[in-house]
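Model it.
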Amino acid sequence: MTLLRAIVYFVCLTMTILLYGMTALILCRFVAKTHIDRIVQRWSRANAWLQKHICGLDVQITGQEHLAAAPCILMVKHQSAWETISLHHHLPERQAWVLKKELLHIPIMGWVLRIGSFIPIDRHAGRRAMQELNQAGAEALQAGRSVLIFPEGTRTAPGTRQKYNIGGAMLAHKTGYPVVPIAHNAGVYWARRGLKKHPGTIQVRIGPPITTADKSTRDILALTEAWIEETMQTLPGQRPG
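Modeled.
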């Protein structure tokens, strides 16, 4: 039954990408970028609804009061596709996500990423990628958008961690905007590989803002990593039963 529900949801997900994606592509010539962002927000909200009613997958969020620090740099644990689909609508509307440039080549979805408020980065470009992130990230923050970054750069299985990349912390150091760390256990219910989405409630914890104006890049990174990984230890690492 879990697999069947996951297949039904996958079909619905594909339909929402076509519907909302084509709407955004048609309207992009006539409306401001903020309206495209709202379409992405509604797409995310629609998928959260579908996940709950098809897969039995819900979410519980604590610490949303910390989002009052926006615009800020959101540093998020990366475990599955759930956060890339559903986290968007739980956050302030004005966002700029940092993503790998390869995603721009995906039909429809990639085209929408090109016209929305996203920051594509070539992860293999080294110093040039950092310069692109610093420039585009600073522009987004100054425009009132929170910049979302997955500091590990890739999905990690529950109970594991990857090296935290310094890009987000460097952006925070250069701009002086606060970092808001976010931990969650989405990977328990939605694995980084595989089709199944198990019923249950994903726990999301939004941490207090980390001030950055008087800290070095490495201090910012260390504080962010410590909060996220310590908080991960308090979240359920297995499904009930």
